[in-house]
Design brief:
The structure is a single chain. This protein is an alpha/beta fold. It is globular and about 55 Å long. The two termini are 37 Å apart. The chain binds NADP nicotinamide-adenine-dinucleotide phosphate. NADP nicotinamide-adenine-dinucleotide phosphate binds next to helix 9 and helix 12.
Length: 311
């Protein structure tokens, strides 16, 4: 049996196109004197969160957004985090607020999510926004699952299939059920009429992960476990999206490598299409967040946003 030559879906090129759609919409919004403003809150020091903040800041400033970076010490009290969020909620120049993860263990994530003004909650983590998304009426689609479906929809179009038809009759397996990635990816798959299977750590600990993943026509893996899904666990012709992002320090002083939750080579040998790490989900996630900030700015100005309507 000869291995399939999988299409490697180019997230960097797609992110560039997505950014162009933001540019176009910004031009229209500016005619109504609307300027998006993004605020990030980082608690403590985390290399991944710092890198994400730098990317998002670069994108936001490149688009002439107002930008505010709040840094709080790792041992900050909850009251001070909530006060910082309250200050940003009240600032009319800030249209979107992003609390960077991970948060130190003493800070209750749910309470923090619920304190962000739901109209500035660009990651869609406030209960009101999570509820709207689950109901199929999203205000903000969280950026990482949005990126997964932007990649998949784009791949469908490039194969000559409309996204409206692409998922019907296909089994979508999502590995991971976090509120920021796994669950919203399941909801977005259901909205597209895929048959959705949700797998998680207990699926794995009961020895049934491969049974789940091998049913996937489309597979989204967001487990945070490097190389978790191997070629033996997928069927021929799978379309595989890798959300995982892991730094692998070099042993001999060379550059740090990055890998995902898929064992890329063995899955690519069987896949019809696959997203790489880096250069797959990540670049679109960053642009999506900046797009959600624009949506928030439009909503605050009572202008109907166009960005995000495709996901
Ligand atoms: P998370 O909150 O830690 O959630 C991980 C999920 O995976 C949980 O639902 C967990 O199950 C499940 N899981 C853990 N081990 C598993 C296993 N062995 N088999 C099956 N499922 C397992 O992580 P997250 O925030 O969703 O992020 C997941 C990954 O995506 C991380 O690597 C993160 O770095 C990456 N990420 C990338 C981007 C990007 O833009 N590229 C953005 C966000 C996150 P339980 O619910 O049972 O615990």
């Amino acid at each position: 049996m000869t291995a399939m030559a999988a299409t490697v879906i180019d997230g960097v090129a797609l992110a560039g196109r997505l950014r162009e759609t933001i540019d176009e919409e910004l031009r229209v919004l500016r005619m109504s004197s609307v300027t998006p403003g993004l605020a990030t809150i980082m608690v403590g020091e985390d290399a991944g969160a710092s890198a994400y903040e730098r990317h998002v800041r670069g994108l936001a400033e490149g688009l002439d957004y107002h930008y505010v970076a709040e840094r709080l010490p790792a041992d900050v009290e909850l009251a001070d985090v909530l006060a910082t969020i309250g200050k940003l909620n009240a600032d009319p120049r800030v249209t979107g607020v992003l609390v960077l993860r991970p948060l130190p263990g003493h800070l209750p994530e749910a309470e923090i999510n619920a304190t962000v003004d739901p109209r500035k909650d660009i990651e869609g983590q406030h209960p009101e926004n999570a509820g709207l998304l689950a109901l199929g009426r999203p205000r903000f689609v969280p950026s990482t699952p949005a990126s997964c479906f932007y990649l998949l929809d784009s791949y469908a179009r490039s194969s000559g299939v409309e996204p409206a038809d692409f998922y019907v009759g296909k089994t979508l397996v999502v590995v991971g059920r976090s509120t920021s990635v796994g669950k919203p990816a399941q909801w977005l798959g259901l909205e597209r009429h895929a048959t959705v299977i949700a797998a998680h750590s207990r699926t794995a600990s009961s020895g049934r992960l491969a049974e789940a993943t091998s049913q996937a026509d489309i597979l989204i893996v967001a487990a945070g476990r490097p190389g978790l899904v191997t070629g033996e666990m997928v069927r021929e012709g799978v379309i595989a999206v890798d959300v995982g992002f892991h730094a692998v320090p070099s042993k001999d002083g060379g550059p740090t490598r990055f890998t995902g939750d898929l064992d890329f080579d063995s899955v690519a040998a069987k896949a019809e299409a696959i997203t790489p790490v880096p250069g797959g989900v990540g670049p679109i996630t960053d642009v999506w967040l900046v797009g959600n900030t624009l949506v928030a700015a439009a909503l605050s100005a009572r202008v109907e946003p166009r960005f995000g309507s495709a996901v």
